[in-house]
Structures are given as C-alpha cells and as structure tokens.
Specification:
The structure holds 2 protein chains of 2 kinds. Chain A is mostly helical. Chain A contains 9 helices and no strands. The radius of gyration of chain B is 19 Å and the shape is globular. Chain B starts with 10 loop residues before the first strand and ends with a helix. The chains are: A mainly alpha, B alpha/beta.
Chain lengths: 210, 260
C-alpha cells in the first residue's frame, strides 16, 4: 500500500527519471547499432578482423561497470559530463551482443543463396543490402534485444556517477534505507526491461525469414 | 550483346590452369570450346573439377594461368558484374532467396538492371509460363514450393534477362527420378525453342546422354575427352567405358534376374 501511495505522490519525478533512463538506453543502443553492425559485417566478410573485433568487445564486456565509469572519467569531453560518460559506457557494453549477432547472422546465411546472388551479378553492396542483411535481421535483432535488456539494468548504475535515470531513486533509497524509494526505481526499470524484451522479441519473430 | 560470328566459339578455354587454395593444380593447360547453341555437358565424379570449370566461365573463380573467353572477350579483363548478368546461372541447391517471393526471385536481375515494373511483371508471367508453372505461384515464397517447382523457378530466374549463355550446375540433382525425367524433357523442349549456349554439369551419364550435344568427361581435375553422346557410348577410352559399363550393369542385373 505504501508503495502505491509513494508512486502516486512522486509520479512526476518517477516519470521524469524514467524518461531520462530511456534516453540513456536509447542513445547508447543507437550508437551501439551504428558502430556494432558495420563491425559485425566487417568481421563476417574479412575473417582477419573477426578475432580482434570480437576479442576487444569481449574484453570490454568483462570490465566491471563501476570500474569502467572510473576509467572513462579522465577522457576529455566525455568525462566532462556524467550523461556522456554513462552513454559511452552503455554503448561499449551493448557492442558485444550487436557485433556478435551481426557476425553470426551473416555467416549463417545459406552459402548457396549467396553464391547464386553473386553468380547472377549482384554487386557486393547489393548482396549485403538485399540478401545478407535481410536474412540476418532476426539474429541481429535478438542481439539488440539482449543489449537493450542489459542496458536498462546497467543504466541504473549510471546514477552512481550522477548521470540520472531510475538509478537515482535506488541509490537514494539505499542511502536512506527506504524500501519504497528503492522500489520506485526498481519497478519502472523492470517494466522497461520487460517491455523492451517483449517488443523486440515480437519484432524479431515478425522479421524472421521463412 | 553483339552477335557472334558463326563458328567462333561462344566460350573458350585456352591453356587454362587453376590452382586451388591448397596449392593443388587443376587443369594442366585445359582447352575447351563451346559453340553457340550447343549443350555441352561436363560429366565427372565429385571433385573432378566440373563445378570449378563452370565457375571459371562467370568468373566466380579466376584462372591462375591461361585465359577464358566469353564471346571473344577475355573474362579476366571484362566487367565482372556485366559478365555475370549476361550469363544465366542455375545451381543444385537452387539458391532461391528465401525472403523473396517467386516473382521477386525471378525478376531480380531485370530489377537491378532497372527495367520498369510493368515490363518486369510481364517478363515474370512469360517465364512462369515458359517453365510450365501456374502464374498463381508468383506470390508464394520458396519454402512453399515443391522441389520440382523450385528448380523451375531457378531456371526461370536464370533466363530472366534473356542471357545467351546458361550455366547449370546439377540443376536436377536434388529431385526424385520422375520429376527429374520431366524436368529433363522440359529442358530439351525449352532448348529447342530458345537455342541458348548451355554448359551443364552432371555426374549422371543418363542425363549427359539425354541432354548433351557433346559430353566433356572430367576426372581428377583433368579434361579426359569431349565426345558427342553417340560416340561416347562407343568410346574406347577406359574411363568413358567404365561409365557406360556402370550404366548398363544396373539394367542388366535386374533384367537377368528374370521373373521369380
């Protein structure tokens, strides 16, 4: 009962922090896509790049998130504002699933389909845009889905460096030993993660090639 | 495409050598000519170099030595995309695009060549008719078709931009014997009408005898001999004779068992 009451009382602040949270996750996911999909394509087409690219993304993934925030702090421009720092860290974490799934998705396209396309005179670009990416899209999306769900959770930690988002309520709650505050941050974050998971899962099934 | 002068081969291999990535050399100086309007069958076991030969023609592979000429032009010096679009290509696994409808699959080359939509549609209709498929099938997807239908769509797709040359790599290999028989019969009828220059890969002597105007026998990366079907049956070449022998064996063994 107390929690409901708290939500009603603080709905404006909760909404604002939720939007902030969404913004952190949205921008970082977008950046991860812009960076990760081309990197995935490169490593799928030129095997030389496969190990360095996936290896680097893997290593980044193993750095604990709080430590990563710390490492990025001295970086010029980025370190100047907490939200930039948080977005960069979240982008780096989201890279691995995006790159890996782009790579897997493209490598998974039936070789006879690619050969037929090449034999018919499709250019590399046409082959990529009309055949490989459309056939890999559901695999790529399942990577994006993992990235987003993880990001929603990780973004709560961004509050530790003052980047805002729902983590702020959680940290405040922890400091004040106030369960309602913690739940006010945790519940919307969980709902965000679940809806992203559901929505992207639906899209993934829709775009599944037959 | 420019008309080729009569008697000039449409496809020509001159002293071709191809080195595999593992360093093994295929085709020590292979010479082969394919005349306009003929169906040259490349017959051989798997690994004999049939498919490699085919891929050298549309430059999916490039010769390590010698030259391949198509319509007199050395392929290594021609625009590879133009070259491939001027040659129809059908492979065993068909390679239909699973995310494209039949219509889009067939109309692919015309579309990337920038044909207007109504012309593409008319062409698709015409081709479906040509390969004896119902035009209702146009909106279906490859996974909704039978094996025989897929093969027909594959042939229609290769013919879409009306190429003078058709390369077929075991196109009827993956269908049952009765469907194959029907596809072969249709191929012959089609070939009589269209008069394409066809290079056809198979490991099946029966198919080679039925479809080929000449049979090029390949073994272990070498071209053994090139013969018209009737001469092939009488050939004294040991490998050709072995093929004919194996072919007869099955028939004879059943016939000799008599009635039980």
């Amino acid at each position: 009962m107390n929690v409901v009451h708290f939500f009603l009382q603080h709905h404006e602040e909760i909404l604002e922090l939720t939007l902030e949270h969404l913004w952190l996750v949205g921008i970082s996911t977008l950046l991860a896509l812009l960076l990760g999909i081309p990197l995935g394509i490169v490593s799928a087409h030129w095997p030389v790049w496969n190990k360095p690219v996936l290896g680097t993304a893997n290593v980044i993934q193993t750095v604990p998130s709080l430590a990563l925030f710390g490492f990025l702090l001295p970086v010029p421009w980025i370190g100047a504002r907490a939200d930039r720092l948080a977005i960069l860290a979240l982008t780096l974490y989201a890279l691995l699933p995006v790159i890996r799934n782009t790579y897997t998705g493209i490598r998974g396209v039936d070789p006879s389909v690619v050969e037929a396309g090449r034999g018919m005179g499709l250019t590399d670009r046409q082959l990529l845009l009309q055949v490989e990416l459309p056939l890999a899209v559901s695999v790529i999306l399942s990577g994006v889905r993992v990235a987003v769900v993880v990001s929603v959770g990780l973004a709560t930690i961004a509050a530790a460096i003052g980047a805002g988002g729902l983590g702020e309520l959680i940290f405040r709650g922890l400091a004040m030993v106030n369960n309602e505050l913690i739940l006010a941050g945790a519940i919307p974050a969980a709902i965000l993660a679940l809806s992203a998971d559901f929505g992207l899962g639906w899209l993934e099934r829709r775009l599944q090639p037959r | 495409m420019e008309p080729t002068p009569t008697n000039a081969p449409v496809i020509e291999f001159r002293a071709v050598i191809y080195t595999l990535p593992n360093g093994q050399q295929l085709f020590h100086n292979m010479n082969l000519q394919v005349q306009g309007g003929e169906t040259l069958v490349l017959l051989g076991r798997s690994g004999s170099g049939k498919t490699t030969t085919l891929k050298l023609i549309n430059r999916l592979l490039t010769p390590s030595g010698g030259e391949v000429r198509v319509n007199g032009t050395i392929t290594a010096k021609s625009d590879v995309i133009r070259l491939r679009r001027s040659i129809g290509y059908v492979i065993q696994d068909v390679g239909l695009f699973p995310h494209f409808s039949v219509e889009r699959n067939i109309g692919l080359v015309p579309r990337i060549e920038g044909w207007p939509a109504d012309r593409i549609q008319a062409r698709v209709e015409e081709l479906l008719h040509l390969v004896e498929l119902d035009s209702k099938i146009a909106s279906r997807y490859p996974h909704q078709l039978s094996g025989g239908q897929r093969q027909r769509v594959g042939v229609a797709r290769a013919l879409a931009a009306d190429p003078a040359i058709l390369l077929m790599d075991e196109p009827f290999g993956a269908v049952d014997a009765i469907t194959r028989d029907q596809l072969q019969r249709e191929f012959l009828a089609l070939q009589r009408r269209l008069n394409k220059t066809v290079v056809f890969v198979t490991h099946d002597l029966r198919e080679a005898l039925r479809l080929g105007s000449r049979i090029a026998l390949m073994e272990a990366g070498q071209l053994v001999t090139v013969l018209p079907p009737q001469d092939f049956l009488r050939s004294t070449d040991s490998l050709a004779a072995a093929y004919v022998q194996a072919f007869r064996e099955g028939w004879d063994s059943a016939a000799n068992r008599g009635t039980s």
